[in-house]
Amino acid sequence: MTKGYWMVHVEVENAEAFKAYITAVMDVFAKYGARYLARGGQFEAVEGRERPRNTIVEFPSYQVAVDCWHSPEYQAVKALRENAGRVDITIVEGYEGLQPGS
């Protein structure tokens, strides 16, 4: 089964609202078997638009990643960050094919 990922790029404008979202989303992510691969931290935007906060969330499968997004639990939590800033989220399917050096 190929994993799924949320690629998240955030520019926080209301730190308190965003903090409430981060606290609440942990339970939703736990329910869907998600884990953080990258969360905030140092980055270098080498091409294209940047946001100061970047996160990669891994899910057991692409379908679970999509299901989590559409779940009533996540949509309720998402409402906490509606006015917290600018957010771009893309859900992508993992890749298990040919790799460099293979």
From TrEMBL:
It holds the Pfam family DUF1330. InterPro entries: Dimeric_a/b-barrel, DUF1330. Residues 3-95 form the DUF1330 domain. It comes from the Bacteria. This is DUF1330 domain-containing protein. It comes from Cellvibrio zantedeschiae.
